[in-house]
Automatic annotation (TrEMBL):
Source organism, top-level taxon: Eukaryota
This protein's name: von Hippel-Lindau disease tumour suppressor beta domain-containing protein
Length: 186
């Protein structure tokens, strides 16, 4: 009995034995671990909008509960009130990195931009995100208190200062938003 050629399909006993040809492998965006936290008093339906623009149902989140999800950067998630089907908004802007936004499904046509929804109560928190070494280094340098005294090329220093100022402005706005959502003492 002769051996099959190298490129022939060979039956395997286990999926782990199968070798996927390099040209068929998919390159995925960075993996991100998140918690979806339902802070409402109603049941929330969690849905992922895939690349075919169809929803995949990830089940329901009961009031005051959470779900730990492994997803990828750029995936779109939507949260619906199970009572009336209303799309809930989220705190998708992270104070740490506004580039990693968890895109929600398109808002309803009757949504008025700028008006805050009373149902802005689904929180998303990132956990152990995968970052590139470049981004990690940029963040580490931009957070240094002696940033202005570092011996760097002018273009690099300008980029770091710009990043730091944008990050500080974003953090201030995020803190104001959090403070505005806190209940006021009577």
């Amino acid at each position: 009995m002769s051996n099959p050629p190298n490129n022939a399909l060979v039956p395997v006993n286990n999926i782990n034995q199968a070798v996927i040809p390099f040209h068929r492998q998919r390159i995925f965006p960075p993996r991100v671990m998140v918690f979806f936290i339902n802070t409402t008093d109603t049941i929330v339906n969690v849905r992922w909008l895939n690349s075919d623009n169809t929803y995949k149902d990830y089940g329901d989140l009961h009031p005051k509960s959470y779900r730990h999800v492994s997803t990828f950067y750029g995936h779109r998630w939507a949260f619906y009130d199970t009572k009336d089907g209303e799309l809930l908004t989220t705190n998708y802007n992270s104070p740490d990195d506004e580039e990693e936004i968890y895109f929600a499904a398109k808002l309803p046509e009757n949504y008025i931009l700028g008006e805050e929804s009373p149902k802005q109560n689904v929180l998303i928190f990132r956990r152990r995100t995968v970052e590139t070494l470049t981004y990690s280094a940029l963040k580490a340098v931009a957070r240094r208190p002696d940033l202005m005294q570092l011996q760097l090329a002018p273009k690099i220093k300008e980029a770091l200062i710009s990043y730091y100022q944008e990050r500080q402005a974003f953090l201030q706005q995020w803190r104001r938003d959090v403070a505005a959502r806190q209940p006021r003492p009577a």
